[in-house]
Amino acid sequence: MARVLLFGALSDLAGWREKTLEANSVGDLRRQLAAGDAALGGALDGPGVQVAVDQTIVRHDAALTADSEVAFLPPMSGG
Amino acid sequence: MIRLTDTEFDPGILLGDFCRGRTETGAVASFVGLARAEGGSAAVLELDAYPGFTEAQIARHVTAAQTRFDLQDVLIVHRTGAITPGQPIVFVATAAPHRRAAFEACDFLMDYLKSRAPFWKKETGPDGARWIEPRPQDLTDLARWETP
Questions:
Q1: ipTM, 2 decimals?
Q2: Cβ-based contacts of B45 with chain A (< 8 Å)
Q3: CA B58, B94, B134, A72: dihedral to nearest 10 degrees?
């Protein structure tokens, strides 16, 4: 089971911050999220959205293991 | 040292503590970012972070600053949660034997924090809420440090 985390505008759009889903890759996870919520699916493909698996930035099609933590990170802005 | 906090901090106390007991530091530079009211359009700013990941990403950039500049120490304190106008959002202090490295490293770290550090910032005012992304100027500022 992957623990999925959304940040910033993505979590506002989806209406949740954290969810647990069964998925074997980031691509699989994105398809499931898009199937359940087309607006979220579009936003996950939006410009500047990065994906971190277990707190490391990965390619959008990276494989997942059991207990992976997957975070979708929209464009960042601090300070 | 890198610290995230969801409560208001006093930059004066942080700077005083950072300077204390340094007998080999010739220069400390600091920067304080404050939340703006934007003429009343921003009543509250909410800062979201990814605990663990956010500190680790900032730490990588502190290491880059230490490689690039002759630094002795760095302190970064960054707010999360709800911030009202006038409250400090970020504090950066750098210590170096000489002033140029301290100034430049502080500038370098702030340019990174504005547009690349894992924070997400939402401004809420009378007209509703909006997520803030880096301005073109922030990206231009960051590009100054990229080696050709």
A1: 0.90
A2: none
A3: 10
